[in-house]
Write a structure and sequence with these properties.
25% strand; globular; seven-stranded mixed beta sheet; Rossmann fold; 16 helices; alpha/beta
């Protein structure tokens, strides 16, 4: 374990990740064309279809994406928004590349949204056209979007036929700074905002992790992240593109399918949030051939036991990445980092990115070891929130540093620890308590699978600490033991006073814990 109170050298919490390896040049359109020219016969995408695996090469991917781009140009203009509301599909991938080629902006709608949330998104970005597919359990999004849309809504499946129709004429020449992706925030604390990313920012988010962890054109990516999340639209689709490698289109998270594809395709790179990997590693028929090289985890605290299990059961090295809709890959670990760094930190500033721990009010860097707001500046940042100048000005400081809203600290080696969300700080009797610290302490107990610390209102103290616990199978809810265990690692005022035990954590569609829902469990305690 890294001592949290180890002696720190004097200094301020601001670091640049360096300029190596160099960034790829050009737009996403340029990268797709150059990759197809060099590796035209190489598989770009694997598409499971029943018992078959359909292979699309880079030459075919470019041709089909260009056909869709030409078709879009007959109906939309560069800069127009193209909405997609569907589970993952090869048609979504073709549409995303087509938007890059046509200089348009793609916006994936969250498959977990209500009609009210979808209406808010549509009114915010005003799409010129929308495409719908299927959601969970075969639910169709078409009637729902048609009810609220004032723009044409077409079946996403139409893209398949459109992609085979040849067109004459030329396409625009978008640059790296061309707006490309509207990434909606998760909306766990309010209405989703629309972060606008350029082709450079999106490319960077896909490029950086394989660049640091030795990605090659022989890699096969298997990751169930949805396209409405940066894990799918950027890390998977564009991560594979920047290394001329291949990825598998997974409609949604299905443990049995993932395990089967691990055996059939022998992927070398996988990812997901910790909750998914707890599930995958428990599969009775998990392949034992150790083909997986890298498993990238993020979105939640990663317990040491999970990192060890991933290594023991798959043979893979874990990589930890930190980012959000507004800045796709601000920090991450490197291959030489020991297990303690993977489990207790979010790594270092990523290459070409600058990370600062700032005082939330002044925006100035705080000393090493002090908790402040994590801020990032560099090519991975959004340009702003679409249609919301006030929120943009509040989030991006004049210096160019983007305020993440997350709290953390940096040590003199540049390692960064998450302390929680700025708006989730638990203030008990004037003492600031950071949920991540409480959760990390609880999850070192062998009977605790997942833990979430939340605020519980208290008239005298302001807040108290509430813990929501998901136990490992067969364990008992022994509050006295759990309190004693936590008290060995954190101060007495940080030890949870209120406890709830649940079978499953409520999650967003991207796998993040909905703490707003967890706080409701304690309403009767206030």
């Amino acid at each position: 374990m890294i001592p949290a109170d180890r002696e720190l050298k004097p200094g301020l919490s601001i670091r640049h990740g360096g300029h190596e390896p160099p960034l790829p040049e050009g737009s996403l359109a340029d990268i797709l064309r150059s990759t197809a020219a060099r590796f035209g016969d190489r598989p770009a995408v694997f598409v499971p279809s029943g018992d078959r695996i359909i292979t699309i090469t880079y030459a075919q991917l470019l041709e089909r994406s260009e056909n869709v781009a030409h078709w879009l140009m007959t109906r939309c203009q560069p800069g127009d928004r193209v909405a997609v509301w569907s589970n993952n599909a090869i048609e979504s991938v073709l549409l995303q590349h087509a938007c890059a080629l046509a200089g348009m902006i793609i916006a994936h709608f969250n498959t977990g949204w209500t009609d009210t949330e979808a209406r808010h998104a549509a009114e915010k970005i005003e799409p010129s056209i929308g495409f719908t597919g299927k959601g969970s359990r075969g639910m169709e999004f078409a009637p729902r979007l048609e009810k609220i849309a004032d723009f044409p809504v077409l079946p996403l499946s139409d893209i398949g036929g459109i992609s085979t129709q040849r067109h004459e004429g030329s396409l625009p020449s978008p640059g790296a700074d061309t707006p490309f992706l509207i990434q909606f925030t998760s909306g766990t604390t309010g209405r989703a905002k629309a972060a606008l990313l350029t082709q450079l920012a999106a490319m960077y988010g896909g490029w950086v992790r394989p660049a640091v962890y030795d990605g090659t054109e022989t890699d096969v990516w298997l990751n169930p992240a949805p396209c409405h999340h940066i894990g799918g639209s950027i890390a998977v689709i564009l991560g594979a593109l920047t290394t001329a490698s291949c990825f598998v289109v997974l409609e949604s998270y299905d443990r049995d399918q993932i395990v089967r594809l691990m055996r059939d395709l022998r992927p070398s790179r996988m990812g997901g949030v910790p909750t998914m990997w707890h599930d995958i590693l428990a599969a009775p028929d998990l392949p034992s051939d150790k083909a997986v090289k890298i498993v990238t985890l993020g979105g939640a605290i990663v317990p040491p036991s999970l990192v060890r299990q991933v290594g023991e059961l798959t043979g893979a090295t874990c990589a930890i990445g930190y980012g959000q809709s507004e800045t796709g890959a601000a920090t991450g670990t490197v291959p030489s980092d020991p297990i303690e760094v993977l489990c207790e930190t979010i790594g270092h500033a990523s290459p070409h990115m600058e990370v600062m721990i700032a005082h939330p009010e002044t925006g100035q860097p705080v000393p090493y070891g002090e908790v402040g707001e994590i801020c990032a500046r560099g090519p991975g940042n959004m340009t702003g929130y679409w249609g919301d100048e006030a929120a943009t000005a509040e989030t991006i400081r004049p210096s160019g540093f983007l305020r993440t809203g997350d709290l953390g600290s940096m040590d003199s080696d540049g390692l960064i620890r998450i302390a929680g969300r700025l708006r989730e700080v638990i203030i008990r009797g004037g003492e600031n308590i950071y949920p991540a610290e409480v959760e990390a302490a609880l999850m070192t107990h062998p009977d605790i699978d997942l833990a979430a610390a939340v605020r519980v209102e208290n008239e005298r103290l302001g807040h108290e600490v509430g813990a929501v616990i998901k136990l490992v199978k067969g364990a008992s809810p022994d509050i006295k033991t759990f309190k004693a265990h936590a008290a060995e690692q954190i101060a007495h005022f940080k030890v949870p006073h209120h406890w709830q035990f649940i079978d499953e954590m409520p999650l967003t569609a991207s796998g993040k814990i909905r703490k707003v829902e967890l706080e409701k469990l304690f309403e009767q305690d206030t």
